[in-house]
Amino acid sequence: MTVAIAGRTPATFEIKSATLPLVALLLKSADLAELTRELAVRFGDIPDFFDHDPLVIDLAPLPDGAVPDFARLLPLLRQYRLLPLAVKGGGAAQMQAAQAAGLAAAPEAVLAGLRQAPAERAEEPAPEPVPSGAMVIDKPLRSGQQVYARGRDLVVMAMVNAGAEVIADGNIHVYAPLRGKAIAGARGDTQARIFSLCLDPELISIAGVYRTSEVPLPADVLSRPTQVRLVGGAEGKLVMDPIKT
Question: Quick one: signal sequence residues (predicted)?
Answer without folding.
Answer: none
